[in-house]
Amino acid sequence: MLDETLQMTSSPIAEQPGCFLLTLEGDLDSSNAQEVTKFVQNLSEKEGLMHLVADFSNLRYINSTGLGTILRISKMLVGKKGTFKIANPNDNVYEIIEIVGANKLLEVYPTKEAALSALEACPIREDDLSPED
Questions:
Q1: Global pTM?
Q2: What is the dihedral of CA 20, 10, 71, 117, to 10 degrees?
Q3: Could you tell me the domains of the chain?
Q4: DSSP for 41-57?
């Protein structure tokens, strides 16, 4: 069960098979980082997740453990020939990302619309999709 400080929801992006929008609301820290990883791994294994846009517009706080989780998720998706994009982080969250230099490793967009537009530019091949798709 997730810590009360973080709410997570996901929804498939209809126009893009294998693509999902993940919305995080609250604080991402050591109390719930492992749950976020499990949540995304489950989407990958059971729903065929290949490309993910994480909407950070309501993420108030992220610490080093939470940032490590985000980097692991990105590495996992890129390793599957997928993509991971972050949308609309507030100044405090972006500052943490920038301080550790993760802005050079992560794709960060100022708005959800910009991240979704970048996602539309991703080549999605049939062999990227799970057999159920």
A1: 0.86
A2: 40
A3: 6-121 (3.30.750.24)
A4: HHHHHHH---EEEEEEE
